Amino acid sequence: MEDSIQPQFTLKEKLVICFYEFLGTAMLVLGYNFTSAGLAVGFNLFVGILMSAKVSGGMFNPAVTVAVYTAEGTFLKNISLILMIIASQIIGAYFGILYAHFCLGAPAFLCPYDQATGCVTYDGFGKVFLLEFWCTFFFCFCILCQVHTKTQESKDGILQAASIAFTLLAMINTAGAISGGCFNPAFGLTQTTYQVGYMNSQGESGIQYARYLWVYIFAPLFGGLASSLFMRFVHIPNLHK
Q1: How confident is the model at residue 12 (pLDDT cuts 50, 70, 90)?
Q2: Contact of 178 with 112, CB cutoff 8 Å
Q3: Is the residue at 201 inside a domain?
Q4: What's residue 1's pLDDT?
Q5: Known Pfam families for this protein (predicted)?
Q6: How far is CA 46 from the centre of its chain?
Q7: Checking phi first, is residue 73 left (phi over 0); if not, alpha (psi -120 to 50) or beta?
Q8: How buried is 114 (Cβ within 10 angstroms: 0-12 exposed, 13-18 middle, 19+ buried)?
Q9: Number of domains, the chain
Q10: Where residue 240 falls among pLDDT bands split at 50, 70, 90?
Q11: pTM attached to this predicted model
């Protein structure tokens, strides 16, 4: 976010970063599939950040990745690494779903309101989009405030991880019962496409379970992008000196 010389990563270093993003994203998705509860996802995020923050940044979410690099003004300079990170997040999310399916016998469903039935019966695209957008905005903005040296309230990594995890938990508790609490394009893409394939394998028409796929991808991405622009052009310039 501040003007600085960006590190040039070797291919090996990029692959290590992607591996940590793969693991962290898988942890988040596992938490959702095993419990469908915000508490498990929040604690998994807390552990994931502590595990990988000093290696990959502990993002586990394309919206967060876009927000961080856009706020730093280095998005285009790091586009190849960003694409690798997002790909690893998507692959990690699929791994988490597959692992949960293997253990539980069925995947969870990401839908508004009532799990699988909400995909088919609930017509609230505007409401879901706004909730996913604003909750992702606040979540990403919290992260940006923690990683920017001028705005972070503490340099303690545990406190930073806890504040980010509790913010996600608060957003899930705020919107999860209505929107499903996605806030993550990788999670939205993988969970939705997997549940479509699962329902097709059960002899039902799976495509109807993908009605909110576009919302779960674009609303968090726009929320993350908006938070980075707000941070860069509104928040930072107006800090008290």
Answers
A1: very high
A2: yes
A3: yes
A4: 39
A5: MIP
A6: 13
A7: left
A8: middle
A9: 1
A10: confident
A11: 0.93
Q: Mean of the per-residue pLDDT values for the chain?
A: 92
Residue 188 corresponds to which tokens in the numbers above? 């939205």
Characterize 78-98 residue by residue with b for buried, 16 or more Cβ atoms within 10 angstroms of its Cβ, and e for exposed: beebbebbbebbbbbbbbbbb
> What CATH number should be reported for the domain holding residue 41?
1.20.1080.10
Q: Which domain, by its residues, includes 204?
A: 11-103+121-230
Residue 5 covered by a domain: no
Cα separation, 174 vs 83, in Å, equals 30
- Neighbour-count burial of 201, counting CB atoms closer than 10 A to its CB (0-12 exposed, 13-18 middle, 19+ buried): exposed
Contact 46, 39 (CB under 8 A): no
> What burial letters (b/e) apply to 205-241, b meaning 16+ CB within 10 Å?
ebeebebbbebbbebbbbbbbbbbebbbeebbeeeee
In the numeric block, the tokens 């695209």 are attached to: 125
209 in a structural domain = yes
Q: How much is the CA Rg of the chain, to the nearest whole Å?
A: 17
Taking the C-alpha atoms of residue 92 and residue 29, their distance in angstroms, rounded to an integer, is: 8
Distance CA 166, CA 192 (A): 25
Asked whether residue 215 is domain-assigned, the answer is yes
For residues 129 and 56, the answer to whether their CB atoms sit within 8 Å is no
pLDDT single digits (tens) 109-121: 999 987 778 888 8
